[in-house]
Amino acid sequence: MIGVNLAARNIERDRDIERDPSETALTLVPLKRLMPAYIYELRRGDTVIETGHLSREEPYQVGDHVEIGSSRGIVRTVNPLLVKGELHLVVQLARQSRA
């Protein structure tokens, strides 16, 4: 029964329980769906100087100040990528940043 207990713990770890007040049943939602995933571009002017992936509990909004590594910038666009289910985030490098 140890294998069964470990499997149950893994399911609990990988999922979060979310209740819908209009339903009596519980709905299990994978934690990854609760945190938006982004493919980002860090730009200086029109030049892309860095790309990568990141996630955050709260969604980014246009105008948000962001710190990626040692670089600081401002979110310019947030658009969905239909193929990957992620969001495309464009961050304009702040003038005082070193990247």
By helix and strand content, what is the structural category?
alpha+beta
String of helices and strands: HEEHEEEEE
Q: What fraction strand?
A: over 45%
Largest sheet: 5 strands, mixed
Please characterize this protein's 3D structure.
The chain has 99 residues and is of the alpha+beta class. The chain folds into two domains: 2-32, no CATH class; 35-93, no CATH class. 17% of the residues lie in helices and 51% in strands. It contains two helices and seven strands. It has helices at residues 2-14, 31-34, and strands at 15-19, 26-30, 37-44, 47-55, 65-68, 71-81, 86-93. A five-stranded mixed sheet has the order 4-3-7-6-5, with no helix packed on it. A hairpin with a 4-residue loop joins β6 and β7. The protein is globular, with a radius of gyration of 18 Å. The termini are far apart. The model is unreliable at 1-8 (pLDDT under 50).
Please give a handful of descriptors for the protein shown.
alpha+beta; 5-stranded mixed beta sheet; disordered N terminus; 99 residues; 2 helices
